[in-house]
Amino acid sequence: MTIPVENPATEELLGEIADAGEQGVNDAVAAARSAFNSRLWMGKNPSERQAILWRAADLIDAHREDLALLVTLETGKTLKDARGGDVSGAADAFRYFAGLSRNSNGQSVGVDGPFSVRADREPFGVVGAITPWNYPLCIAAWKLAPALACGNSVVLKPSELTPFSTLRLGQLLAEAGVPAGTVNIVNGYGDSTGDALARHNDVDKLTFTGSTRTGRRLMVASAESNLKPVSLELGGKSANIVFADADRKAAVRGALWGAFTNQGQICTAGSRLLVESSIHDEFLEWLLRRVRSLKIGDPRQDDVTIGSLVSKKQMERVLSYIHSGKEEGATLLCGGHREGGVGCFVQPTVFSNVKPEMKIAQEEIFGPVLSVLRFATEEEALWLANSTPYGLAAGVWTADATRAARMANKLRAGTVWINCYNEFDPAAPFGGVKLSGFGRDLGQAALDQYTTVKSTWTAQ
Ligand code: NAD
Question: Out of 2.160.10.10, 3.30.2270.10, 2.60.40.10, 3.40.605.10, which CATH number does the structure's domain 2-234+436-459 have?
């Protein structure tokens, strides 16, 4: 079976991919197992593995424009976002984990009795990775680079909506010197190919980024197969909290890009803006002026700031949330409609007078829709921020360092940004709590995801 892949900005067919299905997954896992058992990758010196991962980063940089264009064509995001968020993010991840691949990976442990004990980190073996469409290249790199740095083989299934940039990344990894069979990209739908990978008894570990709904299904798939450990980076409904003493200009910029980066299709989107009552009206005026200046259109044009959503289905979903916001009585301040007749463009949309129980305040929209809520006290801000089932990220804008520290301490989120938003670095662990998942991509913490610990006791 083949799957058509469209450019969502033009609705033109970009190409077709095969749905690998169970047989394709079996073949890929067998190749990954065979490469792992032959120690083609793990058997290399750490410095050689480091050099190959570093070369991969150099190749990504060398192909920056082609890769960015591929990402733009398959996602509809602007070229600027594709260059920064996807291509640079991917290269940076490979460089960071190239370094970590030389980390010493064991320690000696003091125990009672005449023994010496070592606790060593070992690769799992075959890692299954399933990635979403919103940052296809970057998230693939966030899985591949640490898994490889730890010595694993990988079978990766990208989203069926955005397969091409990941396939190209696979070619570049081969060119960099990653041995055959060590990285395998399988295409296909979630229900067929993704499920087959999640249930495969010879996959030792599963890492996933995507929706909470799929995350739950992967836990079931693991429970019903070989109990492979699963790590999940899921959705969010993050609060971006602006206190009256904040640097107004910086906070407006943070609120704008917190909500509308990648057309709001980013798991950390600051999609709930909480503004202190005393500055609420004035702050919204400033913000709306900026929102109205955003330019929607052909994502390949340099001056365009808002591109297309990823698909018709996603556009319909976002428009239905906008409809529900109106129905539930929130005030539509700007946007609210599809833009143009071709492509999946939705206007940047801002609602005020949003109540915490409304759907647009509770559920992840994954589109350019900002819900603004007001608060009177720090306690109320905290309560509002923590009152969704998600816990991926939060932002706090204030000039009061003590308050910032108090908030950071009490916010239930995997990442808290103080006087900044949507900042990432491969050295900083990233992941969520509550329905936003568990396990951490990036940083030293990522090494825990891709290794298991073996204790070896030697009698003295
Ligand atoms: P999705 O869960 O529908 O799909 C993600 C991937 O899972 C795709 O490759 C898909 O084919 C696969 N999949 C779907 N059903 C499957 C199944 N039953 N078994 C195995 N695989 C299956 O999510 P999406 O629509 O691609 O992405 C949007 C969602 O991802 C949003 O909810 C967003 O918040 C989340 N997301 C989270 C992060 C994060 O780091 N926390 C990052 C990006 C996206």
Answer: 3.40.605.10
- Best mutation site among 19, 130, 187, 222 for ligand 1, i.e. most ligand atoms within 8 A of its Cβ? 130
| Closest-lying ligand 1 atom to the alpha carbon of residue 133 | 26
* Fold exhibited by the domain 239-418: Aldehyde Dehydrogenase; Chain A, domain 2 (3.40.309)
Is residue 247 within 8 Å of 399, Cβ to Cβ? yes
Hey, how many other C-beta atoms are within 10 angstroms of the C-beta on 145? 30
pLDDT in tens, 198-227: 999 999 999 999 999 999 999 999 999 999
CA distance 257 to 252: 9
Q: Cα angle vertex 414, ends 263, 106, to 5°?
A: 125
Two tokens, residue 258: 């917190």
> pLDDT by residue (tens digit) across 270-282?
999 999 999 999 9
Report whether residue 190 contacts ligand 1, using a CB cutoff of 6 Å. yes
Per the rule left: phi > 0, alpha: psi between -120 and 50, beta: everything else, 441 is: beta
Phi and psi angles of residue 46, each rounded to the nearest 5 degrees, phi first: -55, -40
441-450 pLDDT per residue, tens? 999 999 989 9
Question: Mean per-residue pLDDT for 354-367?
Answer: 98
Rounded Cα distance, 231 and 440, in Å: 8
Q: Is the pTM of this model over 0.90?
A: yes
**Statement: residue 106 has pLDDT above 90:** no
Give distance in angstroms: CA of 314 to centre of ligand 1. 13
Distances (CA, A) of 428 to 138, 163, 416: 15, 27, 12
Question: So which residues are the catalytic ones?
Answer: 233, 267
Closest C-alpha to ligand 1, atom 33: 235
- Across the range 140-154, mean pLDDT stands at 97
List, in sequence order, the alpha helices (H) in 150-265: 164-176, 195-199, 212-224, 248-260
Cβ of 211 below 6 Å from ligand 1: yes
Q: Which atom of ligand 1 is nearest to the CA of 132?
A: 26
How many whole angstroms separate alpha carbon 269 and alpha carbon 109? 43
**What residue ranges of the chain are covered by domains with CATH 3.40.605.10?**
2-234+436-459
